[in-house]
Design a protein that fits this description.
- The complex is a heterodimer of chains A (216) and B (241).
- Chain A is mostly helical.
- Chain A has one domain: MetI-like fold (Orthogonal Bundle).
- Chain A has helices at residues 3-7, 9-41, 46-60, 64-79, 85-110, 114-122, 127-157, 169-180, 183-213.
- The termini of chain A are far apart.
- In chain A, 38% of the residues are buried.
- The model of chain A has no long low-confidence stretch (mean pLDDT 92).
- Chain B has nine helices and ten strands.
- In chain B, strand 1 and strand 2 (14-24) form a beta hairpin.
- In chain B, helix 3 crosses helix 4 (110-123) and helix 4 crosses helix 5.
- Classes of the chains: A mainly alpha (216), B alpha/beta (241).
- At the A-B interface, helix 6 and helix 7 of A face helix 2, strand 6, helix 3 and helix 5 of B.
Chain lengths: 216, 241
């Protein structure tokens, strides 16, 4: 039944590897930049708060597919030479996802009481120490279910990079389909791959949610 | 040890503290009482620079808190603080709560910091709770961990901001006993509290504040027996049943 899939499995798995790599870099970069974005959004310094808020509002009101396109065509002008789809896609995803992770973390940061941070300061900890050892870890723990959900969304969204010719899973499936003309089974296979992996992720997320309800 | 000279603070147009003058000597325990909103907690936060003030001066060990060249992080190491709602770090065990600052600020080794933390936990009476998370401790136990956390930096002054007002009645004593012990051991303490039994037993001076001003100051018995101002009398009649 899945004959066309079996025949092209190594090629398709190669595409899935690209999907996984893109997801990995998008999440690492997106969350790291997201921490800074979240901190910027609670900053009392106007020269930090306003530019960060502008960036967040700008990107969150543009469709992801446009951001991917836009970077692909603008990056060569900035860098001075044509850019491969992969690094271009990684940068677009980091820039895009950081705004979403940033807003999730901002809510997490705001859930940490002022007195708790002051308790840190009163023992002599510096701004960066209270941020690193108190604010960020507490916000991460409280926001973990939302962070996992957003990570799953990011993983699914990586397929949009096919528009700039990145040979990830969906793109490669389309190429195979062009030769084999077996759309239902080929795209059915892709759906199964995404469903299983995302469903596992949501189970993990639910487990953390239960844990959180037990106190913390 | 602590010298406050003509200190005033505003939030916008609203004056929270008005011309506060106070000298606290080494080894003294000063209890600050007064109705809520009278500026007691703000006063504590001005002493260790958690809140800025606009006028006057606060000197801790001769160092000005408001001087821009003062390293506040360094200054705060000398001033331990205990909060009304404990404010333990929820993602860390009692032991980790206590050792964080000694490890990161004083750069102590894990063994040194751990040993000191265990001594402090024994001193506040809960050596068996070292590996418990705050969520699994009672209010009284949490507050005692918070006291141990502040003591771990070996401060010269301890400030308490209504340390017993978020506690169930049966847990108040266990926290007060630790504080009485500290006061009698010679620690310099500034305590915002309405625990008049505590004030009577250990306070060298009791200050009554209202609307951002120090209305009255006195020593133990004298303060309770012969309050001078009407407002102090009125306040005392409400809290001393």
């Amino acid at each position: 039944m899945f004959d066309a899939v079996w025949r092209n499995l190594p090629y398709l798995l190669g595409g899935y590897w690209v999907t996984v790599k893109l997801t990995f870099f998008a999440l690492i970069g997106g969350i790291a930049l997201g921490v800074l974005v979240g901190l910027g959004r609670i900053s009392k310094k106007k020269w930090i708060y306003y530019p960060v808020t502008f960036y967040v509002n700008l990107i969150r009101n543009i469709p992801l597919i446009l951001v991917i396109f836009w970077f692909y065509f603008v990056m060569p002008i900035i860098v001075g030479r044509p850019m491969d789809p992969f690094p271009s896609a990684v940068i677009s995803f980091i820039v895009f996802e950081a705004t979403y992770f940033g807003e999730i973390l901002r809510a997490g940061f705001q859930s940490v009481s002022r007195d708790l941070i002051q308790a840190g300061y009163s023992t002599g900890l510096t701004y960066w120490q209270t941020t690193r050892y108190l604010l960020v870890p507490i916000a991460f723990r409280r926001m973990l279910p939302s962070m996992i959900t957003q990570s799953i969304v990011t993983y699914q969204d990586t397929s949009l990079a096919f528009v700039i010719g990145l040979p990830e899973l969906v793109r490669r499936t389309a190429i195979v389909d062009g030769l084999e003309v077996r759309s239902i089974q080929l795209f059915g296979f892709v759906a199964v791959v995404f469903f299983i992996t995302c469903y596992l992720g949501s189970i993990v997320s639910r487990r953390f949610e239960v844990q959180r309800e037990r106190g913390f | 040890m602590i010298e406050i000279r003509d200190m005033s603070k505003w939030y916008g147009d609203f004056q929270v503290l008005s011309r506060i003058n106070e000298v606290i000597h080494r080894g003294q325990t000063v209890v600050v009482c007064g109705p809520s909103g009278s500026g007691k907690s703000t006063l504590l936060r001005c002493i260790n620079g958690l809140e800025p003030f606009q006028e006057g001066e606060v000197l801790v060990d001769g160092v000005s808190v408001s001087d821009p060249s003062t390293n506040l992080y360094k200054l705060r190491q000398k001033i331990g603080m205990v909060f009304q709602r404990f404010e333990l770090y929820p993602h860390m065990t009692a032991l980790q709560n206590i050792t964080l600052a000694p490890l990161k600020v004083k750069k102590k080794t894990r063994e040194e910091a751990g040993k000191k933390a265990m001594e402090l936990l024994a001193r506040v009476g809960i050596p068996d709770k070292a590996d418990s998370f705050p969520a699994n401790l009672s209010g009284g136990q949490q507050q005692r961990v918070a006291i141990a956390r502040a003591l771990a930096m070996e401060p010269e002054v301890m400030m308490f901001d209504e340390p017993t007002s978020a506690l169930d009645p049966e847990m108040i004593k266990e926290v007060l006993d630790v504080m009485i012990d500290l006061a009698k051991g010679g620690m310099t303490m500034v305590v915002v509290s309405h625990e008049m039994g505590f004030a009577r037993e250990v306070a060298d001076e009791i200050i009554f504040m209202d609307e951002g001003k120090i209305i009255e100051r006195g020593t133990g018995e004298e303060f309770f027996k012969n309050p001078k101002s009407e407002r102090t009398k009125d306040f005392l009649s409400k809290i001393l049943i």
